[in-house]
Amino acid sequence: MAAPSGRSDRRLWAALVPAALLCLAARAAEEPSTADFDVRPGGEVHSFSRSLGDYTCTFTYSAQGGTNEQWQMNIGVSEDNLLFSCSVWRPQGKSYLFFTQFKAEVKGANIEYAMAYSQAAVGGQSDIPLKQEEFEITETTVSHREGKFRFELSKLMIVAKTPRDEL
To answer: Using alpha carbons only, how large is the chain's radius of gyration in Å?
Structure first.
């Protein structure tokens, strides 16, 4: 497109540029995000939450032993806005904390796929999934199964389907 030459062309550009910047700013707010947080032992229940547009992921846990561990939460929305993803994990791989409970909950979408791991893949190590009987998945949560969970957690992954407006 050529640079504006006439008075009406300048008005058109003056209207389009702010609108384009607003669109870019709105799109930037929807970009995937990663946030670091500490998982703290001590037996108390703690939560960490992040939102992206209309969607929220909350990780709630209680852990014992050791000292704080650095964890990350990654959230994102697919380009077509049909899927919301949330992963919570320890970037160093295996957690040495003893988790007494955990729950990851999504708001604004329904879970299509979820998995929990006792070890996250880093440095040549592989993801080691929890046994299916150790955790349960509902429409909006992934959580430990009382009496079956073996207290090891290093990673949670959720892919949820967003509501789709039908015309």
So the answer is: 21
Put simply, whether the predicted model's pTM sits higher than 0.85 gets the answer: no
CA 120 remoteness from chain centre: 15
Edge to edge, the sheet with strand 69-77 lists 33-39, 69-77, 83-89, 155-161, 110-119, 128-129
Average confidence (pLDDT) per 10 residues, the chain, 167 residues = 45 37 41 96 97 97 95 96 97 95 98 97 91 98 98 98 74
CA distances from 75 to 13, 21, 99, 157 (A): 35, 24, 23, 10
Residue with tokens 């994990």: 89
